[in-house]
Each structure stands twice: as structure tokens, then as C-alpha cells.
Amino acid sequence: EVQLVESGGGSVQTGGSLRLSCVVSGFSFGDYAIGWYRQAPGKEREEISCFVTSTGSIWYDDSVKGRFTIDSDNAKDSVHLQMDNLKPEDTATYYCSASTRAYSDNRQCPYDGYWGQGTQVTVFS
Predict the structure, then answer these.
(1) CA 13 to CA 111: how far, in whole Å?
(2) pLDDT of 29 strictly over 70
(3) Who's near 65: CB < 8 A, 6+ residues apart?
(4) Given CB 3.0 to 4.6 Å as the disulfide criterion, which of 33, 42, 73, 83 pairs with 110?
């Protein structure tokens, strides 16, 4: 069974950094698409970054571009989100999703993917 586990969340001061991890298991294919999403209280879930392992395709939403970086660790079958220069508006629950299929558009985010349980990020001033 496919499983995703997020970790690395916490509370940091404005301008600080956090590194989130998503460990993926259970896929029959070596290649997959993975995306990072977040949902703040009272807001809709937002798509913030996507990555395709086979092509290296990477997409960032404008709200995090230049501050967040997505990368993979093949040996540990995991994907990470390095978050720098954090702002209070980044406060949200962060989720990862993975699929063997991706949307055929500029973002190439996971199509019909599995989801993790989420990890909480809080940024205070």
C-alpha cells in the first residue's frame, strides 16, 4: 500500500528556516510526481511546489519562489522542501502528495495522488 509521511514542521520566528521531509513508499514504479501543498486556517488548500523525478521538472508558486527549494534523496526515497526567509503568511499545515502520473501542463503536479497526514508550520513575528 502506498504511504506518505511528512515531518519537519515546527514554530520559528519571522526570517527563520525549516526543512520539511516526505517519505514515499509502496509505488511499483521508480519514477513519480510529488507536490507540496498547504492549508491555512479559513483558506483553501494551496499548491506551492511540484517535482517529477524522471525529468527533473520543478515548479514553484509565486508566493514561495525564491524562498523555498524542493529536492529529492533517491537513496532514502524521500523528497524535501527547504523553506528560508519564512513569513507569518507561511503559517499553515503542509501536505505532500505523490502519484505515478502528472498533469500535462506547466506545473506537472501529481494527478490523482496519495496524501500524507500533514505537518504544522507556524511563523511568528
Answers:
(1) 34
(2) no
(3) none
(4) 33
